[in-house]
From TrEMBL:
<keyword id="KW-0472">Membrane</keyword>
<keyword id="KW-0812">Transmembrane</keyword>
<feature type="transmembrane region" description="Helical">
    <location>
        <begin position="52"/>
        <end position="69"/>
    </location>
</feature>
<feature type="transmembrane region" description="Helical">
    <location>
        <begin position="175"/>
        <end position="195"/>
    </location>
</feature>
<feature type="transmembrane region" description="Helical">
    <location>
        <begin position="234"/>
        <end position="259"/>
    </location>
</feature>
<feature type="transmembrane region" description="Helical">
    <location>
        <begin position="109"/>
        <end position="131"/>
    </location>
</feature>
<feature type="transmembrane region" description="Helical">
    <location>
        <begin position="138"/>
        <end position="163"/>
    </location>
</feature>
<protein>
    <submittedName>
        <fullName>Na+-dependent transporter</fullName>
    </submittedName>
</protein>
<feature type="transmembrane region" description="Helical">
    <location>
        <begin position="207"/>
        <end position="228"/>
    </location>
</feature>
<dbReference type="InterPro" id="IPR038770">
    <property type="entry name" value="Na+/solute_symporter_sf"/>
</dbReference>
<feature type="transmembrane region" description="Helical">
    <location>
        <begin position="279"/>
        <end position="300"/>
    </location>
</feature>
<feature type="transmembrane region" description="Helical">
    <location>
        <begin position="76"/>
        <end position="97"/>
    </location>
</feature>
<keyword id="KW-1133">Transmembrane helix</keyword>
Length: 335
């Protein structure tokens, strides 16, 4: 009976292992497949919150606690990076939105940009950094600290910049974010206790493959209306796509420049983290009760989020190789 069960699970396990081994190629392919099959969007949209919970749970489950504690003993850089992504970015975006009149003239887009800036970094950021050949440890610990405080910072900035634009109060937004994160952390803790970190590490590639499937579910749910919007409003839709790429690479470039003194390779890793905003967390917290323009912009952001790691991998690996060649002891002394 046990051999029958093993053979039953062998094929799916091999499939997940293969999918996980594709790395950034699979992540990039997800966005095109999701956009190309619109009916999946309508089918999967009710499961956005569940997909986000699973993605968060997987990410918390794989946190390297030893590396986390090591960086927490050197808090200055982590605190600076956390303050930039959770406070600096939303303050700048909020001030620009109000100064340019975007809040009055395009409230749906203004809401989208503010929710994007208020969101914590994507939980997949450390894994993407590792796939690109970057040191993911600093990304990991900054991600954890930023995620821990985002229910409070998001509630604050929602009250400052989003008065009357959300269907829920800023306090409710913060409490829902806190509940989602707490549930994911609890689930991850239970899994770690049941299976152990060694088992989780041993099945790294199948877990990566499963993670990509959940990413696809989320992307399909968000991008279900992209084709119809492109046909109905081509200029507007393409404009939102261009804006999403502009904001993504602006955050990447500015963050890399701000933190260049810690080394270009590590600064690029932080830039990747800051530009990869967890919009799914905001969708889950608001239960998807957002204007159509906000939904469409969120859909457009999936293109840079999924494509940029694949496009930037050659640059990241060159930087890593150059850092290792010029200073072999730099990684250990820098941490």
């Amino acid at each position: 009976m046990s051999s029958a069960l093993q053979s039953l699970f062998a094929l799916p396990l091999r499939g997940l292992t293969w999918l996980g081994s594709q790395g950034t190629r699979a992540v990039a392919a997800v966005v095109f497949i999701a956009a190309a099959v619109p009916p999946l969007g309508a089918l999967l949209r009710p499961y956005v919150t569940e997909a986000i919970l699973v993605l968060l749970c997987i990410s918390f489950m794989r946190v390297d606690l030893v590396a986390l504690y090591g960086h927490l003993r050197r808090p200055a850089l982590v605190a600076t990076a956390t303050a930039w992504t959770t406070i600096g970015v939303p303050v700048i975006v909020g001030l620009i939105a109000h100064a340019t009149g975007l809040t009055e003239h395009a409230p749906g887009l203004s809401l989208a940009l503010m929710l994007q800036s208020m969101a914590s970094p994507m939980m997949a950021s450390p894994a993407l950094a590792a796939l690109m050949g970057l040191d993911a440890t600093l990304v990991l610990v900054t991600l954890v600290t930023a995620t821990a405080i985002v229910p409070f910072t998001a509630s604050l900035f929602a009250s400052l910049f989003l008065a009357g634009m959300l269907s829920i109060s800023p306090l409710t937004l913060g409490l829902k974010l806190l509940g989602i994160l707490a549930a994911s952390l609890l689930g991850a803790t239970v899994i770690r206790r049941l299976f152990g970190t060694e088992t989780i590490q041993r099945y790294k590639q199948p877990i990566d493959g499963f993670n990509i499937i959940i990413l696809f579910i989320f992307a399909a749910a968000v991008m279900g209306d992209v084709i119809s919007d492109l046909i109905a409003r081509p200029i507007f839709t393409i404009g939102l796509a261009a804006l999403s790429f502009t904001i993504y690479f602006a955050l990447l470039a500015v963050t890399t420049l701000l933190f260049r003194r810690i080394g270009t390779e590590r600064a690029l890793a932080l830039g990747l983290m800051v530009s990869q905003r967890n919009l799914g967390l905001m969708l889950a917290a608001t239960s998807g009760a957002l204007p159509p323009t906000t939904w469409l912009y969120f859909a457009m952001t999936q293109f840079p989020i999924h494509l940029a790691p694949y496009l930037l991998t050659p640059i990241a690996r060159r930087l890593t190789a150059r850092a290792e060649t010029s200073s072999p002891v730099a990684p250990s002394s820098a941490t």
